[in-house]
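Give me structure tokens for this 201-residue protein.
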Amino acid sequence: MFIIGLTGGIGSGKTAASDWFAEQGIAVVDADVVAREVVAVGQPALGEIVQTFGEWTLLADGTLNRAALRQHVFEHPEDRKKLEHITHSRIHAAMAQQLHAATSPYVILVSPLLLESGKAGLAGFCQRVLVVDVPEEIQRQRAGSRDGQTPESIDRIIAVQIARTQRVALADDVVLNDGNLQHLYHQLERLHANYLQMSAV
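Here you go.
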């Protein structure tokens, strides 16, 4: 299976890019989606999280209070490691299963921390890495308007992601998403044609 790792900073437009590939019939495996699935009600990981951190991690309907837990692990790095211990191997296994089940010519694997995890993590699945790049000021505007995140929370997320220059340096392919969606799609069309050729070899 020919796998393209798609990544980028917060507010870069990873979802817009992965949605475009999905519309072309390309299978998309998204780490954020899988991360939500492994902590859904009835999943063992949710029980472990409650056991480790307490009942405050649940909302009234029994689902995970993702916002509260995210805030907590940002403020307590040692607890972030505990959370990763509970979730990461499960996310990794579920993504491997979805990648294996894909039937499109190639697969897009989306992960915001693809490069941070290195080859030992999800990047190890990928033959190529595609970075959706965007200037930091646009990142902040989009992240703030999209889901109402505060400037402080955006800063914390940016702080745990690798620097923009380093991300671009590690990429095999880069698209610049600093304009409208048609500008992004035009760049993706060229890459899609290349990936179809590469995956056919």
